[in-house]
Amino acid sequence: MRRPSRAVLTLAALFAFAVTGTTTAAAAPAAQPVSMAAEYGTVPASATAGTIGDIYPAKWRNVPQDSVIDDWNMYNRECVSWAAFTIARHGKSAANYGDAKYWDDNARNNGFRVDNTPTAGSIAQTDNGRYGHVAIVDSVHGDTVTVEDYNWTGDGHYLVHDVKTAAFRYIHFYG
C-alpha cells in the first residue's frame, strides 16, 4: 500500500482548517437531550388542566412544526409560540423574546416580575437544554406544578404534565 504524498497530506490539513478552523480534528460537542422530556422526564398531570386547554390557532397547529412564523416572530408549534400566543390573549406581549432561555432576562428588562414562586397563569421558564423551555402554569401542587406547553417531547405537540417547581423560574406577565 502506498503512503499518501506530502501534497495530499497538506491538502487534507488545509481542508480540515477551512472546515473547522483548526488543523486537528475537533471532538464533537456533548450531545444535547432531544427534548425537555428527555432531560426532566414526563410525569402525568396531577390535575385536569383548566386554565387554558389546547386553543392554539389552527393556522399554526395544523401545519408542520417550524413551517411558519407566528404573529410574535416565532416558529409554530414551539413552546415560545404557544406561550407568546397565550400571553397575547391576556393583553401582554412577548414578541421577539427569542429562544426560551432568554425569556427571563427579556421579561425583567421589560418590567415583568421573575421569581421562584409559581402561580396559575405564570410562565415556567428554564435555560436548560439547547434553547431552554417555557410553559404555562395551570396549577400549583406543593413541589410540583401542572403545566401546559408545546414541544416538551420534541415533536411539536401540546401536552399537559407536571414538573418540579424548583426546576423553573416563573415570569409573571399578568396578575
Structural key phrases:
175 residues; alpha+beta; 7-stranded antiparallel β-sheet; 5 helices; 7 strands; 24% helix; disordered N terminus
Q: Mind explaining what this structure looks like?
A:
The protein is α+β, with helices and mostly antiparallel strands and 175 residues long. It has helices at 6-20, 36-40, 58-61, 79-89, 103-109, and strands at 43-44, 113-115, 123-126, 133-141, 144-150, 158-164, 169-172. It has a seven-stranded antiparallel beta sheet. Mean pLDDT is 81; it is low at 1-33.
What topology emerges from the helices and strands here?
Layout: H1 6-20, H2 36-40, E1 43-44, H3 58-61, H4 79-89, H5 103-109, E2 113-115, E3 123-126, E4 133-141, E5 144-150, E6 158-164, E7 169-172
Antiparallel strand pairs: 1-6, 2-7, 3-4, 3-7, 4-5, 5-6
Summarize the entry for a quick read.
It contains 5 helices and 7 strands; from the N terminus they run ααβαααββββββ. It is an alpha+beta fold and about 180 residues long. It has a 7-stranded antiparallel β-sheet.
